[in-house]
Each structure stands twice: as structure tokens, then as C-alpha cells.
Amino acid sequence: MTDLSGAPLGPHDDDKPHEECGVFGIWNAQDAGAMTALGLHALQHRGQEATGIVSFSETGPEARFHTHKGLGLVGDVFGDARIMASLPGTAAVGHNRYATTGATLIRNVQPLYAEFEFGGLAVGHNGNLTNATNLRRALVRRGCIFQSTTDSEVFIHLIAISLYTNVVDRLIDAVKQVIGAYSLVVLSRESLIGVRDPLGVRPLILGRIPHPDGQVGPNNSKEAWVLASETCALDIVGAEFVRDVEPGEIVIVDNDGVRSIKPFGDRRGRFCVFEYIYFARPDSVLDGYGVYEARKRIGAELARENPIEADVIVPVPDSGVPSAMGYANESGIPFELGIIRNHYVGRTFIEPTDQIRHLGVKLKHSANKAMIEGKRVILVDDSIVRGTTSRKIVEMVRAAGAREVHMRISSPPTTHSCFYGIDTPERGKLLAANHDTEEMARLIGADSLAFISLDGLYRALGHKEGRDAGKPFYCDACFTGDYPISLVDLDEDSRARPDLLTGAH
Ligand code: SF4
Q1: Can you tell me which atom of ligand 1 is nearest the CA of 416?
Q2: CATH class name, domain 290-502
Q3: Which of 9, 174, 216, 454 could form an SS bridge with 13, CB 3.0 to 4.6 Å?
Q4: At which positions is [4Fe-4S] cluster bound (predicted)?
């Protein structure tokens, strides 16, 4: 099976960018392991390939860490009560993985755990380090023995060889050497630590669970603390949102409460704008802005910028739904669920053979003929990566009797690959990197195609002046090629293979 340019498709090429990971950590809570499993369940959309929890218990015969990891969904890996019983303690960190660096081997599943001279330490990482290959090479030369192929293990070795004595200073030493987009949750015997990269590209938030009046929790605390990739993971464990961890901030939670260190000073962030468009769960609030509301506003802006006469607005479910609602509200054209998504199609079912993969779209989506037949349809989706799914959806809607099919996309054209933790194909395989909008419309078989503009996207997110070329507020590199964090490893590679950045192959 091939994409629209004839390039072969791999087993993970389902024509959507993929989030790499979700992280969760909790301190001072009864059943911290079970709370972490719940948090990871709420963050399942950020990674479905593997999951893991490391907990710490101070009671019993000895204080120690406990680990369980597995390949698969949170419910599959932690669904057994005996497994949850093997994760006792009042503190834990957890991780959901979508593998972009390192194969999906059990030894790559996080949190990574290691014993140091100061005791055990568990690290969960969401993001991607752009100088990991360089650092790894240097660390191996110094004698470090890597257990996994994931870039996250670099943190473990940098902490191990640091000459500082305490955990926090060693961690600061480590983050000053890495370059990239990352959010970390770190668990030691004394503390839970959250770290966000200097530009805050990947999300991390702080929450609190007050203990009921008059009660105290473990360690005589009045509250439990939570770190998580998104606020939806707070809701499921009954925590209240405190604040976003700031770009470049290290938040340390211990029995004295919460403190903050900013080893990089105060920074203006470049949060990933694609979190608002597609990755984050609609009920999350990120960097002070509700994702659901953001998507509706993006849809409304898309309608203002790209109006067309039609009979019905149809979202490509699920991620296209809020922006289609925004488009419908703004345009006054009725909104209908003209495509129904089957939520019970597992990846294992659609992956094994090319023939089954070809049917993949029909397995996931089917046309609701009564809402489409004889009508001029506007389909609203969040992005076009390779275009293979868009073409099949357009075909399916036409086959259901649509008179016209117009496609509207709630992101600007995806013209560049992401190197900050989102799995996108290389540039040469991105439809928008190689074709203008008119050609793309022809390739996907739509009567018309339009994307929200970059300035329109910024306006929808509350920046009236648009992108503000000199000081953009977000990372938008996959739409602009303006990479805010240097691509150290890739720049070295691209001296030998310039096509990696230009897509010219
Ligand atoms: S390149 Fe795109 S997907 Fe990657 S962090 Fe930047 S905005 Fe997000």
C-alpha cells in the first residue's frame, strides 16, 4: 500500500501525527500506584504502545521502589488487582509511551529506574531530545552502558556522572546539558520533581488533592500533589488544578510542600500549538486555555477565512468535532454527524496485512447516508499529513451520495516534520510539503480544500495581532519550518543528507 505520492506505507502510517507520551506523578497519597494508573488512563490518548508505573513505599519491612511495566493499554497492563497490589506506597510516577525513538521493547518502556549512590530514581519523559545522539556518543565514550535505545536514558546517565551531591543539583546539571523538548516527572525517596524544557514546548501541570477537613495524609501532610501532562488527569483523581509548570521550571514536591527553581531564568515559552489543534484531550486546559473552546474558535475562524455555500457541516470524528461545531456556528450551516466512528477498532486488527490496512478507514469510519445524500457537504478535519485518510473519507462521502465535497482543515498546511516529540513522517512524505492547495484538493478528490491561515490560528487562540513574526507565542515549526530549538543531531546528519531537512528525495 502506498501514499498519494506512491511511497510505501509502514505499519504505523495511519496518516495522523502521534503524540509521543504522557506523564503522571503523585506525592503523599494513599494508593499512589492506583491513582497513577487512573491518571495514565486519562492520558491514554498520548500513547498507547506501552505503559509503566514506579511507586515508592516507606512502610513494610523496608522502604523501597516497586515497578511494573508492560506493552499495551493502561487497562490491559494494570487491570489485574494483584499487579496493583504489587505497587504499594504513597508516591508514584507513571508513563504512557508512543514510541518515536527506540523500538517498542520492554526495556524502553518508562519510567526508567536506576540505583544511584543517593538511592533509587525513576524518570518519565515526554518529548524528544535533539542532541541525544551526540550526548549518548559522549557518554558511551566515558564508559556509560545504556540499557535501552530511548533518548530518555541520557537523563539517567547525566545524573549518574554528575559531581553534585544531591538529586536536585544533579538534575539541574543534567537538564543544562540536554537540548530538546521535554517534560519530566522524577521520583526519588525524598521528592517528586517535575521539569519542563526552557521553551515549555511539551505540557506539564501541577495539581493538588486536599485531604478532607480534619484529616491528614501520609507524612502528616494536609494535601497530596500531582504532576501530569494534562488537566484531564487531575479530574480523574479528584485533584484541583494549581498551575502550569512554567517553561524551564523545576518544581520540587516533598514533605515540606512545593518549591520552584528556574535554572534558565524567566523565559518566554513556545508551547506546541498542535496540542490545541489535535493532541490534547478536549476537556483539558493547557497554558490557561481550554482545548475544547480553542478548537471551536479555530473552527469559527476557519469559517470566516474560508466560507463556501453548502447544505451541511460534517466533522471527521473525533478530533474534527469541536472545530466543525465552531465552523457551523459561524457559518449558520447545519451541523450533522455525517460520519460515524467505530470506537472499538483496535490497532492490532487494522495492522497485520496491507489488505486489511486498505480497509482501515471503513473499519474506523462509516458514512451516515441519510445526512449526506444529495447534499453539498463541508468536511472539517484537523490536519492533512500524507492525505491517504482524507482521500478515503472524501471517496466514502461521495459514495454515500454527496453532491459536492469540500474539505476544511483546522490547521495550516503541515509542511515540516516535528523533531520535538511528535511522530510525523519525514518531510518528503508530507502532502503539503510537495503540493499546493489546489493540487492537494485534486489528489484527495475534494471539490475544494482550504486551511486556516497561521495568523488566523493565532487570532483564534487570542492573539489579535496574529503570529507576530518576530516573537511567535507558540512552536509552529511543522507549519513554518521555524524550529525554536536547535536540531543538533539532525544538523550534523543533514550535512551528509541535506534531504532530511528539505525533503528533496
Ligand atoms: S513542530 Fe509542530 S507538532 Fe512539533 S512541537 Fe512544534 S508545533 Fe508541535
Answers
A1: 1
A2: alpha beta
A3: 9
A4: 272, 418, 475, 478
Of 2 and 211, the one with more pLDDT: 211
| Residue 262: other Cβ atoms inside 10 A | 13
Dihedral class, residue 434 (left if φ above 0, else alpha if ψ from -120 to 50, else beta) = alpha
Nearest Cα neighbor of 28 from 54, 60, 58 is 58
Structural class in CATH, domain 19-269: alpha beta
- Please tell me whether residue 431 adopts helix, strand or coil conformation: helix
C-alpha angle with apex 84: 81 to 87, nearest 5 degrees? Answer: 155
Place of cell 506539564: 204
Task: Choose among 65, 73, 113: nearest CA to 97.
Answer: 73
Angle between helices 132-141 and 153-161 (to 10 degrees): 40
- Cell 533518548 locates to 151
DSSP H or E run through 364: helix 360-364
Q: Could you confirm whether 21 is annotated as catalytic? A: yes
Q: Report which DSSP code applies to 284.
A: -
Q: Which residue type is seen at 238?
A: G
Locate cell 521555524: which residue? 482
How do residues 274-320 score in pLDDT, each as one tens digit? Answer: 999 999 999 999 988 999 999 999 999 999 999 999 999 999 998 89
Q: Write the CB contacts of 61 (distance below 8 Å, at least 6 apart in sequence).
A: none
Residue extents of the structural domains in the chain: 19-269, 290-502
Separation of 483 CA from ligand 1 center, angstroms?
9
Return the best residue to mutate from 20, 418, 483, 486 for the ligand 1 pocket (most ligand atoms within 8 A of CB): 418
Exactly one of 4, 9, 21, 234 is catalytic; name it.
Answer: 21
Residue 284's nearest CA partner among 224, 237, 226, 241 is 241
Sequence-distant (6+) residues with CB within 8 A of 170 are: 159, 162, 164
Q: Which residue's entry shows cell 502528616?
A: 220
- The grid cell for 54 is 514506579
Question: Which amino acid, 92?
Answer: A
Q: Cβ(155)–Cβ(177) under 8 Å? A: no
